[in-house]
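Data availability (excerpt). All sequences and predicted token strings are deposited with the supplementary files. A representative entry, N-succinylarginine dihydrolase, is shown inline so that the format can be inspected without opening the archive.
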Amino acid sequence: MIVSEANFDGLIGPTHNYAGLSLGNVASALHAGQASYPRQAALQGLQKMKSLMDMGLTQGVFLPPLRPVTGLLHHIGYKGDDKTILTQAAKDDRQLFNNLCSASSMWAANAATVIAAPDSDDGRVHFIAANLATMLHRHLEAKTTYNQLNQIFSNSCFFAIHHPLPCGQHFSDEGAANHMRITSAHSNTGLNIFVYGEKNDVFPARQKLRASQAVARLGEVKSDQTWFIPQNKEAIAKGAFHNDVVAVANEYVLLAHAEAFENQGEWIDRISQKIDGFIPVIIDDITLEQAVKSYLFNSQLVTLKDRTMALILPREVKNDPAVWETVNRIIGGNNPINKAVVVDVRESMSNGGGPACLRLRVPLSKSALAAVDQRYILNNERWEKLCELVENFWPEKITPDDLVAPELWKSAVRAHWALTSWLG
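Structure token line:
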């Protein structure tokens, strides 16, 4: 069975803004209150998708949910039409209102954890939608994410879609950003590594061990193929709020900062004994602060048609000469990574999400890919149409004051209907 990896990116929504809602995310806090550029943001994300398409890789898309969301306001006692309750909420509780406007669903790496078919007991691809319980603006995505996964991967012969875990920090689950699969090839059985956060004195650990254990059970991962590794506390304290800020894996290659995990050397040795041909590329010549600022490890690591690998990097890696020198050493080293593709995702980066945050990796056989709802798989025509919709319906600029303007809410509705009409 031939299995390759599809990347499903989140289309950046028309209310993309910088409200600084994500505690522990350094970039989010740094840019809070600044003007954002939703049209540019969405086009940057689409251009990254096109870069992967041009490499011959399968590229899918997730559509953003309608924002601002009003269901929560009804649930907590607000009465009236959408305009009335949104206007009142903006006056009563601006922080709550900002949560309702977030476009954070763009970061599809947090949408779900994906268990590959070769790793599950029933031979299907399993999706466990993330509850994103730590942050309200992210948790508001959980239901719509589950529904969209059911729409795209509806064929139960190939796919199993699981509800998010119970809400609450006991089961805080932030999806594939804390899950790595290491295998000799996408089509072979792999080692599923779930990285969880332990308590620290600075920022909340967003991925709980019990949540990762529950995800593994739901995904029917074979017990001997499941490991749980604690994230380095110092990495969390320095701003690595997810594992994918300090580590990325693809097939038999692991690219990681030297301080990504607790007891890292022991874990690397164990993986080497488990996976034939395992190649760890461990970086110890840049600091955690440099890693977090540049998002070097939040690059996409992909396998190309010729079986070599490429890093899809944010352009911020070029801002620090030491980081860029590290990139050149990686692609010139004794490993399969021999290509670096720099992309501009500045608008996402300013809110704390790099190339890897924007995508969910889905290993698919040819038959499973054919069973996917093809409206969500991009070709040149679909990609061009999405670019046209963004140009026509996404606002050029949003300031904090713009968020409370009813005209912005109306434009978001128009953009949402344009997308659903395109989808058919």
